[in-house]
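Office hours follow-up: a student asked to see two folded examples consecutively, so here they are.
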Amino acid sequence: QVELVESGGGLVQAGGSLRLACEASGSIFGIAGMGWYRQAPGKQRELVARVTSGGVRNYADSVKGRFTISTISRDGAKSEVYLQMNSLKSEDTAVYYCNAWWSPFDNYWGQGTQVTVSS
């Protein structure tokens, strides 16, 4: 079993910054990557950024140059992923979900953390 615990959401003014954190614990051996998705009201969940265990990073076009994803693995027992969000815009307002995957059919989700950007 894998547990993902997120933190760092909140309310920020447009142009400000937030840093999201997610800790994966449990049976994480062989993890292929971790990432962040978001879902705004009335919209589908979308990829924000992800990083593979080999260090390959992908970003949504809408966040390139503003968001940075990074990860830390601690002795195979825990893995952490961070999302540094700068120059936030009102359209970044959403619930952000941490995701960890081992294959396209084997992945876990966090409970979500709200990010609200006021204009």
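And the second, which I mentioned at the end of office hours:
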Amino acid sequence: QVQLVESGGGLVQTGGPLRLSCVASGRTFSSYAMGWFRQAPGKEREFVAAISRSGGNTYYADSVKGRFSISRDNAKNTVYLQMNSLKPQDTAVYYCAADPVTVLTTPDYWGQGTQVTVSS
């Protein structure tokens, strides 16, 4: 079992930055691929970004490429999502996810989510 707790959400103006964090507990953090997803009101949950177990490979949704950056610190059991140049359409609940293989399919573990609101 892996427990995931997100933090760092909040209200930010258009164009501003925000950094989300997700702390994992339970099993060996470095054994899990990690990722971020988001769900806006009335929409389905969508993939945002993913990072491999070692951190050597990253993947992004086209909508956030060049603006968001995912990273991890295996010594701190933490994955980060640095979000820059935020837009109102980035408003959503952001979820951290973990999987022993890949989060690009359906991850095994999910956090509770943190709200990000971008004001225009």
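Two things to take away from it. The two ends are 40 Å apart (CA to CA). The longest strand covers residues 18-26.
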